[in-house]
Amino acid sequence: MQLNKQDKLKQKVAIKALDYIVPNSYIGVGTGSTVNFFIDALASRKNDILGAISSSEESTKRLKNIDVDVFDMNEIDAISVYFDGADEVDENLSLTKGGGGALMREKIVAALADKFVCIVDKSKLVTHLGGFPIPIEVVPMARSAIARYLVKKYQAEPVYRSGYKTDNGNVILDVHCLDVSNPEQVERELNQIPGLVCNGVFYQQSADIVLIADENTVVVKEHQNF
Ligand code: 5RP
Asked: Is the CB of 130 under 6 A from ligand 1?
């Protein structure tokens, strides 16, 4: 299959991520088109790991297709590295995620992992988060109330992801025009809203390492505290 330019970059960064696999450990695997390339590449290294913890039904299916054992997170007490993409990456390696709707499990697996390696193509780099609408996962009965609250408090524009259900049986609001200039505060405030189960701002679970593919190379950025 002929890949377009962006997919070539996604594939390149996904292959580079294999360098960060810790042998004989459990790894976390995210969701999305970049991660799909990672899973394809992982086929060549599957015997080096004990298994994977997956962030979505889609990634679970793909991992099983390449014969990687997928474990329930309750069975595992340590994940060496979590590999996942992002919708946006800022210079502090804070992220927005959830374009694929898997944000809640992604945040949980990222929190358990010793290290979060984020894999992106150069189009995901931004000066300020929030240009991409922030996905929030909400309990269905709270959808309209939360949408009204976001309009009133933040003058944001939530859009219901119609016809979409998360793996957890919830729904997604894609929040446009939300000011994310202080990601720490926005993530914390959104977490306080009853019925909102997860938001797509990854400040607490920012990446430890971001691999960024451009046409020439894969740039490695490490968190300053790492
Ligand atoms: C899924 C995600 C993805 O990591 C994010 O949407 C990036 O996806 P892609 O690799 O397809 O560009 O957060 O919930």
From this structure: no
Q: Tally Cβ neighbours within 10 Å of residue 48.
A: 14
CB 28 within 8 A of CB 50: no
The protein residue whose alpha carbon is closest to atom 6 in ligand 1 is: 99
pTM for this predicted structure: 0.97
pLDDT digits (tens, 9 = 90+) for 25-74: 999 999 999 999 999 999 999 999 999 999 999 999 999 999 999 999 99
Handedness of CA 167, 207, 88, 188 (dihedral sign): positive
Half-sphere exposure of 216 (CA within 13 A, CB side): 1
Rounded distance between C-alpha atoms, residue 101 and residue 171, angstroms: 9
Length of the chain: 226
